[in-house]
Amino acid sequence: SLDVQGFAGVLTWLGHSVDFQDVQEIFDRADGKDKMDYNGFVLAMKAVRELQMKRLSEVFEECDKDHNGTLNINELESALKALKFESDPQVILEVVSEVQEVRSQLRSNRMIVDLTFEDVLDFVQRYRSREGLSQNELDELTSAFRRYEYENSHSVRWRDAYKVLNWFGLEVEAEEAEKYAAKVDVDNSGQLNLQDMKKVLRMEYEASLKRYSDAFADQDTGSGEINNQQATELFINLGLESRGATVVGLPVDSL
Asked: How far is CA 110 from CA 34, 94, 104, 107, 170, in A?
C-alpha cells in the first residue's frame, strides 16, 4: 500500500510532473483513506493520465501560434517549458528525429516538418524515457553502468551509484549519490537498474544547475551578466579552477 507521499514518489519515478495539490486530490478520489491499495493505484494512475492529457492538449493549443494543428520546433520548445521540462536543444532534435522516423514509415515514408498532437504525445513519452539525456550521454551512462554492474544482475548497488557518476565525469560523493538512489529505488531493493540510474543522473544535473544558478545570482548585480572578476569569484565559490580567461558580460546561460 502507498500513502500520498509514496504515491507522489512513484509519479516522480515515472517521470510525471504533477503538482502536489493535484496528487492529493487524485489520491483522495481514488482511495479516500490514508493508504492506497493496488486497485486504488490503478484508478489513480488513470486519473493522472487523464489530467496530463488534458494539460498537454491545453499547452498544445496555447503554443500552436499559427493555429495549423501542428507545432514547429520553436513552438515545441515553448510547449516543453510550459510542461516544466528541462529542454536541451540537442535532445529535442534527437527525439524529434526518432518521432519523425517512426511517423514517416506510417505515412508512406513522407518526412514530417511539424508535429501533430499525436506526434507531441509520442515525443513526450520518449523524452521521459530518456530522462532528458542526449544519445551520447545515454551511451556513456550505459558504459559506466555496465562497468559497475553487480554480478550480472542488470543493476548496480546503491553504494556503487557514485562510482557510475564519477566514471561519467561528475564529482559526486557517495553519500549524495545514495540520497538520489533512495528516491528512485521505489521497491527498496538496494539496487538500481539502468532506468533508475538515468533518473539519478538527471537529479545530479538538476542539482548542479541549481548550484550554478545560485552562484551566478550571488555575483549578478541585476544586469543578468557578470564580468571577469565576478566570474573568477564564481568559479572559486563553486570549487572550480579559474584559468584566467577573459570574460566580458558572461550571461547565466553560458555556465
From this structure: 52, 18, 5, 6, 41
Model confidence pTM above 0.90: no
Q: Give the three-class secondary structure for 36.
A: strand
DSSP percent split of the chain into helix, strand, coil, nearest 5: 65, 5, 30
Contact 185, 158 (CB under 8 A): yes
Which amino acid appears at position 202 of this protein?
Answer: R
| β-sheet bridge partners, residue 6 | none
In 3D, which of 78, 82, 81, 124 has the Cα closest to residue 99?
124
Q: How far is CA 209 from CA 37, 179, 184, 205, 212, in A?
A: 37, 17, 20, 6, 5
Question: pLDDT 10s digit of each residue in the chain, 255 long?
Answer: 788 888 887 777 776 777 788 888 888 887 667 788 888 888 888 888 898 899 999 999 999 998 999 999 889 999 998 988 877 888 988 999 888 887 765 555 454 568 999 999 999 989 888 888 899 999 999 999 999 998 888 999 999 999 999 987 888 899 999 999 988 887 788 999 999 999 899 888 888 888 888 888 888 888 888 888 888 888 888 776 544 444 444 454 555
51 Cβ contact list (under 8 Å, min separation 6): 18, 22, 26
Could you give the CA distance from residue 169 to residue 166 in angstroms, rounded to a whole number? Answer: 5
